Amino acid sequence: MSEIINKVAQSALVTFNLEELLHPGERVVYDIKDNLYMGLILREKDFRAFVKDNDWSVYAGKNIAILCSADAIVPTWAYMLLATKLQAYANYYVFGDLEALEQALMQEAISKIDPEEYRDAKVVVKGCGSIPVPTYAYVEIMRKLLPVTSSLMYGEPCSTVPLYKKPKAI
Question: What is the pTM of this model?
Answer without folding.
Answer: 0.82
